[in-house]
Design a protein that fits this description.
The protein has 174 residues and is an alpha+beta fold. It contains two helices and twelve strands. The radius of gyration is 22 Å and the shape is elongated. It starts with a strand and ends with a strand.
Length: 174
């Protein structure tokens, strides 16, 4: 794969190549505002430079689709292929944010939310008048399980992000 920037490895807007490998990095943007993006959704991406794959030059502004998976505080996006002039070309890549880290930063941390809400639920759900120690442990354990399950179900239902139009990203090809 040849990249219009002519450099290899990971690059940022104002820096020289920081990677020494033979994997290309392409600049791109989120194509249009995308609201309510959830895990397993598709994200539309637009190339900022042209790319040559197997002798075919794919021009800047060509659109492609990425697949979304959420991590604790990042939206992980990968690409598999790109369609141009009716043909599919391999385009396996991972999206990097402007901070140079894999995935787009969301600022939310689901794991912390689960721990906090589950713990609060367990504390508020226990009966302080239980005299039998075994019953207390069972009650706390069941409440913790129920609280964590409820928090996870709620988080899965409401966990979505909005991606702004023209947000600059990088695609690091595998």
């Amino acid at each position: 794969v040849n990249v219009s920037q002519g450099r290899k490895g990971f690059k940022t807007e104002n820096a020289q190549s920081t990677g020494g490998g033979d994997k290309a990095t392409i600049q791109a943007v989120i194509h249009g505002e995308q609201k309510g993006v959830r895990s397993s959704s598709q994200v539309f991406i637009r190339l900022l430079g042209h790319v040559t794959i197997k002798g075919t030059t794919i021009p800047a502004s060509t659109n492609l689709i990425g697949s979304v998976v959420f991590s604790e505080n990042r939206v992980m996006i990968t690409t598999e292929s790109i369609k141009f002039n009716g043909d599919l070309y391999p385009f396996r890549g991972t999206i990097y944010d402007q901070d140079g880290m894999r995935g787009l930063y969301t600022g939310e941390n689901l794991a912390n939310d689960v721990a906090k809400e589950g713990g609060q639920s367990a504390i508020s759900g226990t009966d302080q008048h239980v005299t039998n120690g075994y019953s207390m442990v069972t009650k706390v354990t069941n409440t913790l399980i129920d609280g964590t399950k409820t928090v996870l179900e709620k988080a899965q239902r409401k966990k979505s992000v909005d991606l702004p139009a023209n947000y600059k990203i990088f695609i690091k090809l595998e």
